[in-house]
């Protein structure tokens, strides 16, 4: 019979999933099988920008890093020995100070100003000793909120010392220690994360403002248990952007939709990439760090065991597939923080274990190291497991200056990888058409970029079922 072609592909790109059976991906969403060091904007794929070192090691053996926002933004790096040095990100200068005691995890606090650990502990030392030390804190519209056990302690407005009458206990059948506090400016509510619980708290007016002894509704906090199943595995992974709060639980990434709420017992949003976090122990993930910035959520994690954070998963809330890329860097990451640069633009910074600070998404290289980016499409098997003859592979690309990339065709059953096209130069906007010439059950297209930052718009594959038209197979 006459040979008739069937075509499949992506007219735009929408992220990646790593399920083993990529032939089942929704063909209307542009979901890929793999994306490394890539970014997606308006359906167009491109290699990510590099990173620039903005500070040599501030201190040896970084124990913790935090950022603060005010007239000027700072990144503070704390050492195990109890010292802190601060980098002003808006004017690029370093201010050294010392701390009287080793740093503690509740120091990370963004919002109104920044108080050093020494100032906080000096306020009232009886609240900050031994096993009863506070675990986390955050700013709640001019008040400080601290967590101790299953309690939340609030300061007065403009102060740092807890005001005992305002203390809340989160004991709606959980009795779970609070590991992380997060205040949302969107909902004006406080979220408390334990190992196996998530609470939503609407803070009350401080009792100190009560003049006549007749409190109204505003003087009573509203406490709601969102989940007694989900919790948090890595306290430094809470981030909020584009109407969602995300964090890392034992089973993967969880999310609170600030418009719709949270469904208790729902599968993690990271199920499409379950090979990254699924099956990992809480001890392996405990030191993961994350930050949310301008529609993206970045989480640094170890690729193996409980080793250093050498991978960054980028979640893009504006694309259908949610997961945008897995980024690799030539250094490990202790903490991800965000601060404004000299132009007042909020940027993401990485702090390494030795206290070096890097500005991400800047420059053409990773501080001199070339970036290799790649993506791999889903399996184009045309809804049948019969043998097919794969013919032409077509890709629309704008080289955006001089670039080097290679296009490969990957067959499935039998498995093989063949280079079918290579670009080395400046071609502008072009449509590349290459011959696959392979017979197999499935086929994928892989692109590896070793230089430049080309923009990829679409990809398509032509094929027929061996011996008959593919239009007869449903």
Kindly describe this structure:
The protein is mainly beta and 474 residues long. It folds into 2 domains: 6-47 and 373-472, Galactose-binding domain-like (Jelly Rolls), CATH 2.60.120.260; 51-360, Methylamine Dehydrogenase, Chain H (7 Propeller). It has helices spanning 117-123, 274-277, 282-285, and strands at 6-10, 34-36, 38-41, 44-47, 51-55, 62-68, 74-79, 83-88, 93-98, 136-140, 143-148, 151-154, 168-169, 178-184, 189-194, 198-202, 222-227, 239-241, 244-249, 252-257, 289-293, 296-301, 309-316, 323-333, 335-340, 346-351, 357-360, 373-376, 388-398, 403-412, 416-425, 429-440, 442-451, 455-465. The chain has a 5-stranded antiparallel sheet, with no helix packed on it. The model is unreliable at 100-132 (pLDDT under 50).
Structural class, by secondary structure, is mainly beta
- Strand fraction equals over 45%
Low-confidence stretches: 100-132
Average pLDDT for all residues: 86
Give helix % range: under 10%
Give Rg in angstroms: 26 Å
Which key phrases capture this entry?
single chain, 474 residues, mainly beta, Jelly Rolls, Methylamine Dehydrogenase, Chain H, 2 domains, five-stranded antiparallel beta sheet, globular
Give a nutshell description of this structure.
This protein has 474 residues and is mainly β.
Layout of helices and strands, plus pairs?
Layout: E1 6-10, E2 34-36, E3 38-41, E4 44-47, E5 51-55, E6 62-68, E7 74-79, E8 83-88, E9 93-98, H1 117-123, E10 136-140, E11 143-148, E12 151-154, E13 168-169, E14 178-184, E15 189-194, E16 198-202, E17 222-227, E18 239-241, E19 244-249, E20 252-257, H2 274-277, H3 282-285, E21 289-293, E22 296-301, E23 309-316, E24 323-333, E25 335-340, E26 346-351, E27 357-360, E28 373-376, E29 388-398, E30 403-412, E31 416-425, E32 429-440, E33 442-451, E34 455-465
Antiparallel strand pairs: 1-34, 2-28, 3-4, 5-27, 6-7, 7-8, 8-9, 10-11, 11-12, 12-13, 14-15, 15-16, 16-17, 18-19, 19-20, 21-22, 22-23, 23-24, 25-26, 26-27, 28-33, 29-32, 29-34, 30-31, 30-33
């Amino acid at each position: 019979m006459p040979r008739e072609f069937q075509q499949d592909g992506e007219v735009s790109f929408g992220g990646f999933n790593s399920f083993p059976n990529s032939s089942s991906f929704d063909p209307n969403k542009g979901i890929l099988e793999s994306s490394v060091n890539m970014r997606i904007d308006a359906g167009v794929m491109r290699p990510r920008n590099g990173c620039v070192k903005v500070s040599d090691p501030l201190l040896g053996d970084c124990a913790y890093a935090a950022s603060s926002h005010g007239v000027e933004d700072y990144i503070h790096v704390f050492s195990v020995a109890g010292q802190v040095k601060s980098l002003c990100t808006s004017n690029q200068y370093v201010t050294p100070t010392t701390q009287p005691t080793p740093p503690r995890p509740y120091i990370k606090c963004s919002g109104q100003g920044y108080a050093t650990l020494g100032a906080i502990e000096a306020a009232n030392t009886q609240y900050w000793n031994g096993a009863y030390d506070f675990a986390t804190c955050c700013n709640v519209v001019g008040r400080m909120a601290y967590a101790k056990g299953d309690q939340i302690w609030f300061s007065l407005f403009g102060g740092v010392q807890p005001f005992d009458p305002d203390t809340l206990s989160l004991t709606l059948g959980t009795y779970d220690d609070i590991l992380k506090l997060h205040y949302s400016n969107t909902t004006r509510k406080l979220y408390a994360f334990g190992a196996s619980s998530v609470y939503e708290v609407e803070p009350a007016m401080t009792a100190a403002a009560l003049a006549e002894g007749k409190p109204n509704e505003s003087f009573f906090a509203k406490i709601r248990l969102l989940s007694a199943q989900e919790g948090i595995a890595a306290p430094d992974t809470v981030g909020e952007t584009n109407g969602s709060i995300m964090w890392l639980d034992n089973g993967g990434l969880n999310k609170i939709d600030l418009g719709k709420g949270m469904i208790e017992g729902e599968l993690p949003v990271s199920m499409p990439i379950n090979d990254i976090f699924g099956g990992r122990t809480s001890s392996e993930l405990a030191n993961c760090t994350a930050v949310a910035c301008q529609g993206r959520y970045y989480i640094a994690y170890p690729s193996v065991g409980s080793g250093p954070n050498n991978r960054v998963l980028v979640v893009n809330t504006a694309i259908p597939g949610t997961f945008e890329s897995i980024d690799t860097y030539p250094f490990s990451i202790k903490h991800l923080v965000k601060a404004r640069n000299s132009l007042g633009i909020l940027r993401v910074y990485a702090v390494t274990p030795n206290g070096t600070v890097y500005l991400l998404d800047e420059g053409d290289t990773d501080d001199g190291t070339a970036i290799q980016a790649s993506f791999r499409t889903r399996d184009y098997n045309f809804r049948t497991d019969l043998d097919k003859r794969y013919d032409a592979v077509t890709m629309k690309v704008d080289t955006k200056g001089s670039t080097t990339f290679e296009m490969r065709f990957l067959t499935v059953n039998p498995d093989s990888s063949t280079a079918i096209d290579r670009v080395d130069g400046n071609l502008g906007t072009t449509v590349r058409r290459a011959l696959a010439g392979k017979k197999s059950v499935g086929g994928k297209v892989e692109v590896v970029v070793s230089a430049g930052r080309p923009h990829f718009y679409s990809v398509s594959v032509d094929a027929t079922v061996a011996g008959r038209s593919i239009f007869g197979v449903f």
